[in-house]
Amino acid sequence: MPARVSTRSTRTSAAVSHKSSAATLGSRASTASRSSSVAADVPTERPDSELRGQVCAVFRDAQRNTASHRKLVVTLRKIQEACAYEPTSLKKTAANDFDEEAFNSEFVRCVLRVMPIKKAESVGEKTIRFVGFFLRHANDKDNEILGEVDEDASIMPETPSTRLTSYLMSTILPLMTAKDKFVRYRSTQLISHIINSLDAIDDDLFQKLRHGLLKRIRDKEAMVRAQAVLGLGRLAGNQVDAAANEDDSEDDEASGLLEKLLEVIQNDPSADVRRSLLVNLPILPLTLPYLLERARDQDALTRRAVYSRLLPALGDFRHLSLSMREKLLRWGLRDRDENVRKSAGRLFRERWIEDCAGVPPPEEGAPPAERAPPNFDGLHELLERIDVVNSGVENGVALEAMKGFWEGRPDYREAVTFDKNFWETLSAESVFTARSFNDFCRTEGNGKYESLVEEKLPEVTTLAFYLERYLGVLIEAIKRVSQADSEEDEEEDTVEQEFIVEQMLHIAITLDYSDEVGRRKMFALLRQSLSVPELPDDVTKLTINVLRDICAPDNAGEKEFCSVVLEAVADVHDTIVDDPAPDDRTDDSFHSARSEVSGDTTPTRSGSRNKSPELSEEEARAKAVKEIMINMKCLHIVQCMLSNVAGDLQQNDHLVSMLNNLVVPAVRSHEAPVRERGLVCLGLCSLLDRSLAEENLTLFMHFFTKGHTALQITALQILTDILNVHGAQLLSSTPALLKIYIKALKSGIRSPEVQAAATLAVSKLLLGRVVTDQEASAEMLKTLVVQYFDPVTASNQSVRQALNYFLPVFCYSRAENQDLMRTVALDALHALLNVRENLEDDDADVNEEMESLTTIGACLVDWTDPRKCFNPATGLDLEKKTVNGDIHLEFALDILDRLGGNLSKEEKKVVAPLLGKLYISPTSTEEKIREVYDEITIAVNDKLVTDTTGRNALNKIHVSLGKIVANLGEQQDGEPRRMSRSVSVAMSRADSVAPSVAGSVASSRLHDADEDKTVTMEPDIKEEDENSDDTVIQNTRQGDGDSIVSELLSDEEGA
């Protein structure tokens, strides 16, 4: 290959000294002064030549498919060399007759032909890829001819390829501001592709490209913006790299470009633009938080790209902070899109585990390496890196992650072993591995993996011995920490030991206790551990759950379970006194609670207390605190026990004794914590006995009225559970209970937490059809609708989210629910109108704070749309052309009643247009159709609505009903039927209603049907024309009965 540059080049010397933008794309520094982009004209057309034919042939073949691009690039390169370099052989070719400028001109000419091609045409994409491929290949060949070049040199050597690139870019740049969107798209796409293809760019050209692309990120077309950010992402990365070695101005410019791109990735409305930036922005400490933030993007493909492209490209996940790892895992595994969940699970089980196992990631472009053999030390490190002690609890993300891990990694599933050494050296990570494996095998695969768990996990007796050992370690650690001046390391060790015991109990609750030896061992161990006052609450709860599982599920097993738990409560209760005297052992825990009841009737007890040595103030305080703690512990055990009991309270002597001796005194206690926990236990007892619930209903309401926020929420939950279990008759027998719920729903300003709890409670009562009383249901539903649109709840996302789900589901699930919504819709709309007027009086920005009443009315109509209601007969058929529309006819009657009442002008403007939004079904009840049509006719004749929008809505429904009524008359022509209500109303209003076509036809039918002595009469059909002043004028036309349909069609056009 010749190395001598041809003297035939016609380019001037002014093009010789271009600075490198330090622009090996590894650095791309920009040291030249910033200059504005130079507008270049599209070159004039050269005369046809043999060179043009050769270049055009290459481009023609390039746009057919990409498989031949490599061969075509070599062909085009030979043509370029023949034009730009001196020939080395005597063989004459056609290209030797042309110079470099001619080749550049023909090359650019072919590229320009791509600019107007639409985005959907694949030839444009193929040609642009070919151009980028050729320029990269040509630059590489020119660099080989020049030999080794110092990469740090400030001057970039000039070659035919660099001159071609500069000429092409200068020609394309002005097209980025063209009026045609496809020209802007293709020009921006070409420039971005070339930027991403080349390793070095001339510095002056670099600045022009940067300036031009920055303008395109504000383009109105999303496809143009998406291509612009592709190029800017590459430029930004190289500018940042180079700015590290430059002055402050360079650094400021680089950060300025990044700031603009970060603003785009956060705020651009197009998902394609945000996704393009996500995968093209450089991963830097500045940009990483913004990139990871896209895991919460609205677009599912963008969220998926975070897990499938960004995080794998990030490298070792251990560089992320602990909180960020947990968030990314939780967001991905709980995403609403299945593909995002799959990508997140794949990332966890394939990439993160390999990082911890010490397997180097495959190089970019290299084939994926084979999976490394199972490494359980790496798995335990992975669990440690996601903080399994905190994320492995109930509803923690670690359980979901490991479920996908065991499912997607059969090699780990087969290789895992739980031998003796494993159980003797448990850590938080290893025991969670066993627990997650046990859960997976028992719940997934329809029992396919049951044999694995039977093979690998120990028997009940063995597990009971290990559990006994770790329970002892936990209790010793707790006692050690409870002593003064405990170190932080000891507290962390206690947390880990507690986690280990919890996981072992989770395993124990799934075991088969048909082995009597193992069952007795586990039963005795749990009974003994439950009597330890220091046992943590979470461990206590799990212990009671396992105990209930061990006992038989029948009534006898339930009684045995209660007796065992209450024995443990008595043992815990006995530890309340440090130095127990013989007569001071019993009945001392709730003496403060019982003092109100017992008073002076227990001189023996008070006498014994008076005889005891007086305690100092500190000792008395410590003793009181200990009493409270022990009482709380006893009540917690009872609460957990009651959560596992379903039998009748009165038939269980143990429960009756517990209620009288423990729960009732706790509710009467002067200590607030004891009283509140006693209230929860009393609520659970009330679920087991209806009479007890009725007796204490007033007490729960009193706690709601007088209690603080947390107590109010507890009381609401108890009341709701009682109604769910014992039925809504309690609601009708206790009128004050409904007021409690309404008050809670309206407590948003004072206590948004109570409002959120009340919203969930009322939603469950209505959706579960627990409340069947019409008045109570209507009042609750109306309050929910008002709260949904009230701007006061705008900041209470719990309320808005709950109602956003509840209202459509409630309405669309049953026709009765839609009818209930219809009955409250206008009242709710009236209440919201008052809310809006109050906001206007307060000079607030109403349109910003509250939805318009038109939108609210549309929602109410949509929720009562019979086509959207689920019907067991038709299923989820979306068309539902034969649905009965009586509910909207009833809605129309309600609206007419309101319009005929004392409504304000503003409210009429809101209510009347709803008539035009109603669905009028021809398959509705005939009597209902005729009744509504009659009322609509009266409203039209009486000019009930005065504003234009309302009149148009009234006319619309009038015409729609008229067509249906006319069709009904044609179908029943000649068939005797009784006089409808619409006829009687029309006859009674004969003075005000002019005779119509239908009326004359009806008269003839009366004469023809005289023998049957049956009145057959059709209602009036009015035509309404609208004059130029938007005033509706009612006209009367007469004709024969056959023209009714055409008359009505003309009515619709006039309306």
TrEMBL record:
One of its GO terms (biological process) is mitotic chromosome condensation. Residues 598-610 have a biased composition (Polar residues). Transmembrane segments: none annotated. The keyword Magnesium does not apply. Keywords: Cell cycle, Cell division, Chromosome, DNA condensation, Mitosis. GO terms for cellular component: condensed chromosome; condensin complex. Residues 1-40, 988-1004 have a biased composition (Low complexity). It is found in: Chromosome. InterPro entries: ARM-like (IPR011989), ARM-type_fold (IPR016024), CND3 (IPR027165), Cnd3_C (IPR025977). Residues 576-594, 1005-1015 have a biased composition (Basic and acidic residues). Pfam families: Cnd3 (PF12719). Residues 1-46, 576-618, 988-1055 are annotated as: Disordered. Residues 633-920 form the Nuclear condensin complex subunit 3 C-terminal domain. Belongs to the CND3 (condensin subunit 3) family. This is Nuclear condensin complex subunit 3 C-terminal domain-containing protein.
